[in-house]
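hiii so my PI (J.) wants the whole complex modelled not just the main chain, which honestly fair. so below is everything: two entries, each one labled with what it is. i double checked the lines twice but i was tired so who knows lol
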Amino acid sequence: MSVLAAGPVIPTFGKGSSCVTGDHTFCWDWVRTHWGDTLGPALWQHVELTAIAVVIGFAIAFPLALLAHRFRRLEQPFGIFSALLYTIPSLALFQLLLPFTGLTTTTVEIALVAYTLVILFPNIVQGLNSAPDDVLEAARGMGLTRVQVLTRVELPLAVPAIVGGLRIAVVSTVAIATIAATLLPKGLGYPIFLALKEPTPFKTEIYSAGVLAVGLALGCDGLLVALRRMLVPWAARGVA
Amino acid sequence: MNAAEITFDHVTKRYAGRDAAAVDDLSLEIPAGAFCILVGPSGGGKTTALKMVNRLIPFDSGEIRIDGRSIRDLPVVELRREIGYVIQQVGLFPHMTIGENIGTVPRLLGWPKDKIRTRCIELLELVGLEPTDIKRYPAELSGGQRQRVGLARALAADPPLLLMDEPFGALDPITRFRLQTEMRRLHREVEKTVIFVTHDIDEAIQLGTHIAILREGGVLAQYDTPDAILAHPADDFVAKFIGEDRALRRLALKTLKDVELEQADRAQEGPRVPIETTVRNAVSLLLDTKADRLLVENDNGEVVGAFRFSDAGALL
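here's the output for the full assembly
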């Protein structure tokens, strides 16, 4: 590919270093000069979008999972509902919500929360149901009340599955949140969205935002793995 | 002695959708300090009977009393905290250390922390584990060690009654034998009433001071001491269940201490056995060595008498 060919339009993207104007694959100088006004804020917005979605999703999924655990009959209808939710493509879900909530962060968050819910709910339920029968029988036989069985046995034993659910929810929300840029000038999707709109898609901007999104996902995942190790010392040491 | 007397008074349990009763009009008096074995084929209702005592399974009619008081008079969690419970799969809490597992009931009862810790260490020693095991997790222990912890956990709050549901059933034969031996010692030391379910008649004879044999349909076939059951089985079912070698099994319950030995002087030649030897093993040795008598030694190696084949017959 002849990058220096005298094309009709060579985009300058505001500041034109030779690298940028030459449309090279990756230009560090652009990343340095635009960290403050483009990439940094986009990264922060992305963290915000993800965090709000996961926190709200967890806040809804957790009590629902407790209900489904207590009244086993509820598990299936809850599960089917959330699975149906998951089959709606995110772009379509944004469109469905537009008439009600408009081009707002709320629209984006509702969609993101819906997806985290779908991931978190079954994981929490599965975790709560994972206490072995003999452990539960021993607990009841020793005189733990129903609430004590939940708080002292079932919940601690559910932690690995809950953290597992959070890892999937966080990583997928980081990915899905890039699509929010189709509605809002927010998140790491937005620089990508803008770069793609240029007559010649600006590679540096696409790559740097993409790498940041991947890095964010990996970083969050790493934090959750560390959290799990901290909360679940008994599994880490398990050598049976 | 901190042991309870247990009474089953015409207790019946039927599971929904099944014609046959699981436990049918069961009446048992288990004296304080007894080691009572519930034994029988599957479908005999022995586990059901056991779990009715701590109300894990409700019964339809009749009454169960602990020291004369109905088990239905107490709130169920209070009742259970006063009864030690040991099950085959142990059911240790995998997320808690051994110390936390053992301290479960004392914590529920609100004991101070240092008292719980002292009690844990005492119990670990009692069941043959190291005090340093207190910080380990169940996944780091062998099956036998886990069941020892299960036992310690059940004894933690010093309950007057211990319920044990086939506690050694999942262990390998060597570990099982070792734990059975220690269970006997432990029962002598802690002096509690034990109700113990097994389907293994050998285990029943070895451990029990009392044996209740239940047949299918939850009917009590016989309730007596091991020796009395072996000597006088109530019917064909019991006779078949305890086996045709019941005379030998009775001899296994006695040692040469129980025999009136004939005089023997220490210069005599012949095979020698310690006085703690079971009569069954002594008979086996006679058959094996083709000797006409065994010289019996006391703990100091002195011959205290001679044992002949006819002495065994006299015991039965």
